């Protein structure tokens, strides 16, 4: 018996694959490699190169492998770019998910752990976000993630699907030197690329109502995130009651200024970040409580900020010499 990890060749998906294997659970990966890397998939793991919009391919995959559940990580994940490419975002995140759910129903696969996002909240009016915080997505990306949760809810009623959606905030770090975040839109790669190119990283605004004037956000280690996916899958396999959504966050957060200082200390590259103008709509502080996930999904912050930065930097350096 195995779990299918969609997007399992990507940064987050590849860590989830490793977490399942560490617990002795077989996995199958499907990925179109639009942002993933085939070398992130262990040689022992069956790899299907393909698109979730391809219903016949999904049917063949479910027929070929003994899949009992799906961790759905694949999708178009760039909130800012989604504003310029709404049709593509909806196709990749909504149409593809509906196609996947239809293939699951046809194959009798009735369990899903869904990679959702804090983007469903938009700009919260409270500094501590909970699962009950009103949803007000502000980009096509956030909208499609919320629609994905609705699809799961409706499919549970229609076909008895067992599921949960995990809402991530800012995922960083690395659980293995050969696995790294290669997104050009995420903070850590942006900082590292600037330093390696001889440029000075920039902070967008330093006059926020926070201790050091820079935005405070919730950063979590990707390996900690992966552990909770396995815990959710185990609950679904056991038929144990599970919440429809969980937030995965630290409860306190760190500032962009703290991250910059930690990067300088870990890398040994002394720099003072440039200060740019505020970005429109950036709130002072967004942090989530992970209490519900801690209760049910073995969620905890196992890594300090320095460990997050160091692991990410080591994986970036390993990529530079390979």
TrEMBL record:
Gene: galE
Domain of life: Bacteria
Cofactor: NAD(+)
NCBIfam families in the record: galE
This enzyme's EC code(s): 5.1.3.2
Name of the featured protein: UDP-glucose 4-epimerase
Alphabetized Pfam families for the sequence: Epimerase
Assigned keywords, A-Z: Carbohydrate metabolism, Isomerase, NAD
Pathway(s) where this gene product acts: Carbohydrate metabolism; galactose metabolism
GO molecular function: UDP-glucose 4-epimerase activity
Catalysed reaction, written as an equation: UDP-alpha-D-glucose = UDP-alpha-D-galactose
Record bears the keyword NAD: yes
SUPFAM superfamilies listed in its UniProt record: NAD(P)-binding Rossmann-fold domains
Domain NAD-dependent epimerase/dehydratase: 3-249
Classification via Gene3D superfamilies: NAD(P)-binding Rossmann-like Domain, UDP-galactose 4-epimerase, domain 1
Key word ATP-binding present: no
Source organism: Cryobacterium zhongshanensis
GO biological process: galactose catabolic process via UDP-galactose, Leloir pathway
Family label: Belongs to the NAD(P)-dependent epimerase/dehydratase family.
């Amino acid at each position: 018996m195995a779990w299918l990890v969609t997007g399992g060749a990507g940064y987050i998906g590849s860590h989830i694959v490793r977490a399942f294997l560490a617990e002795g659970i077989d996995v199958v990966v499907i990925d179109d490699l639009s942002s993933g890397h085939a070398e992130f998939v262990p040689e022992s793991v069956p790899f299907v190169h393909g698109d979730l919009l391809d219903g016949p391919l999904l049917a063949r995959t479910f027929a070929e492998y003994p899949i009992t559940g799906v961790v759905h990580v694949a999708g178009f994940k760039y909130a800012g770019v989604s504003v310029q490419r709404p049709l593509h975002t909806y196709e990749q995140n909504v149409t593809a998910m509906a196609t996947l759910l239809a293939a699951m129903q046809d194959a009798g696969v009735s369990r899903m752990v869904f990679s959702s996002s804090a983007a469903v909240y938009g700009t919260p009016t409270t500094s501590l976000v909970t699962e009950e915080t009103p949803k007000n997505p502000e980009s096509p990306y956030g909208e499609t993630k919320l629609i994905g949760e609705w699809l799961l809810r409706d499919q549970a009623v229609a076909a008895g699907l067992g599921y949960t959606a995990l809402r991530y905030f800012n995922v960083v770090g690395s659980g293995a030197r050969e696995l790294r975040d290669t997104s050009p839109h995420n903070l850590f790669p942006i900082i590292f690329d600037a330093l390696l190119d001889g440029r000075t990283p920039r902070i967008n605004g330093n006059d926020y109502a926070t201790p050091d004037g820079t935005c405070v956000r919730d950063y979590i280690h990707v390996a900690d995130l992966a552990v909770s996916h396995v815990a959710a899958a185990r609950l679904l396999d056991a038929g144990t009651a599970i919440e429809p959504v969980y937030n995965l966050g630290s409860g306190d957060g760190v500032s962009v200024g703290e991250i910059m200082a930690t990067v300088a200390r870990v890398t040994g590259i002394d720099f003072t970040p440039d200060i740019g103008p505020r970005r429109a709509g950036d709130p002072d502080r967004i942090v989530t409580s992970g209490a519900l996930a801690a209760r049910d999904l073995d969620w905890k912050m196992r890594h300090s900020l320095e460990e997050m930065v160091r692991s990410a930097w080591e994986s970036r350096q390993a990529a530079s010499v390979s």
